[in-house]
Amino acid sequence: MTQLPKYLSIFSPSTASERKDNFDIYWNFTQEHSGELLEQEQSLSKKKAKLDSFQSQPVQLRQPFQNPDAFYRNYVQLQDAAKTLDRKTLLLTCIYKFARHEWVGITGAWAATPDMANSRHVTDKISRYHLAEEFSHIRLFHEMFLTFRLDQVEWVPLSFTLRKVYELFPKLPEDLMSPFAFVTELMGIMFYRRVDALLDEVFADEPEAAARLRELLNEITIDELAHIGQRRNYLGAMGLKLSQWMTPALFRMFFHDIPETALLFDLELMIQEALVFDYSEIPAPLMRKTWIPSYCIAPA
Ligand SMILES: [Fe+2]
Ligand SMILES: [Fe+2]
């Protein structure tokens, strides 16, 4: 098996010409990785095939989910005190709330970006693929809930104000939007790695379901690892500084809206890990399938 390279910080410097080359390389990668764009379905051929293969081999729970009422009562908005919920419910409602923000964000962005027929630049095409991958993630998240026989989950819009914030986001000037977009991708990876670290403990009595949840999560994580590199590729020196500066505040603000986080994760540690992120903690099987910018790889 080929040796993996040594990685450098995601905040490593790069030149404008390196970034231009990396966009071209990424564009080839993403087409090969995800297949053909299915614009009407907000999907991609390979993503669709992968979801079909999960659905054709459903995992059976050993025991029915203990208390579905507690999940349904709290998944959109916490109604009970978070500390009264069992850890399975807490983790699943937390995953839903994170994914719900993603869903609202990409729904606003999809409407604001040109479709493939009207994409002039390679970055426009990359954005369209990126969003279709994100929609595929929501289907994978939905599959996680189905794995636990939570088949009544609905994707509920956020408040009017938050929806407007997400709709404005893609219209921000590029210099401001790019650092925000990059940090939100970084936040995704930090969150998914934390969820992965909890699966075996929280679902210890449901090892098959935990393994399926990890498979679904890995599919998402491979894409998200590529996304952080891709979004990083928009940033020059100033954008990088701005991203580092906004990381702690953006993490705290975002997770403040998901009270489960405080009981499941160490948010301050996640922030520290984000600031020193260099791919070295990511398992090799995921690294082999994803993409990273050339300037995040140490010279041999
Ligand atoms: Fe995502
Ligand atoms: Fe992403």
Keywords:
single chain; 300 residues; mainly alpha; two-stranded antiparallel sheet; globular; binds fe (ii) ion; Diiron oxygenase
Give the topology, please.
Elements: H1 16-34, E1 37-38, E2 43-44, H2 45-56, H3 68-74, H4 87-112, H5 122-147, H6 160-168, H7 174-202, H8 207-232, H9 237-256, H10 261-264, H11 267-275, H12 284-287
Antiparallel strand pairs: 1-2
Helix pairs in contact: 1-5, 2-5, 3-4, 4-5, 4-6, 5-8, 7-8, 7-9, 7-11, 9-11
The structure holds fe (ii) ion (FE2) (2 copies).
One fe (ii) ion binds near residues 137, 188 and 224.
Separation of the first and last Cα atoms: 18 Å
Class based on secondary structure composition and strand pairing: mainly alpha
Percent strand: under 5%
State Rg: 19 Å
Spatial shape: globular
The strands making up the biggest β-sheet line up spatially as 1-2
Helix tally?
12
Low-confidence stretches: none
Largest sheet: 2 strands, antiparallel
Number of spatially distinct domains? 1
- Following the backbone from N to C, one meets helices and strands in this order, namely HEEHHHHHHHHHHH
Number of strands: 2
- Ligands in the structure? fe (ii) ion
Helical fraction equals 55-70%
Average pLDDT value?
94
Protein name: Diiron oxygenase
